[in-house]
Specification:
single chain; about 80 residues; mainly alpha; 3 helices
């Protein structure tokens, strides 16, 4: 069951908020073991945010090469500037 775009944005923002809170906790922590656990959670939150952001970015169609009009315009330009005999 997929989420729509708005729900993904909400999840992304919540993940960013969580990462910021974890970063604050990590900065305040004195125990190295606790810092390590918090740093692990930060990396997980960053990974989740990256995946959600990737899902939100629009998919662009693959380029199939220049259109016939583009090829003609390129040829005309090359002829105009003496690049083609």
């Amino acid at each position: 069951m997929g989420c729509n775009g708005t729900a993904r944005i909400v999840l992304l923002l919540a993940g960013i908020d969580r990462k910021c809170e974890l970063q604050r906790l990590c900065d305040e922590a004195d125990d190295p073991a606790l810092k390590l656990k918090i740093a692990t959670e930060i990396r997980l939150a960053e990974g989740q945010a990256a995946r959600l952001l990737k899902d939100l970015q629009p998919k662009l169609p693959n380029a199939t090469g220049a259109s016939q009009q583009s090829r003609r315009a390129l040829r005309a330009s090359n002829v105009r500037w003496g690049n083609v005999s």
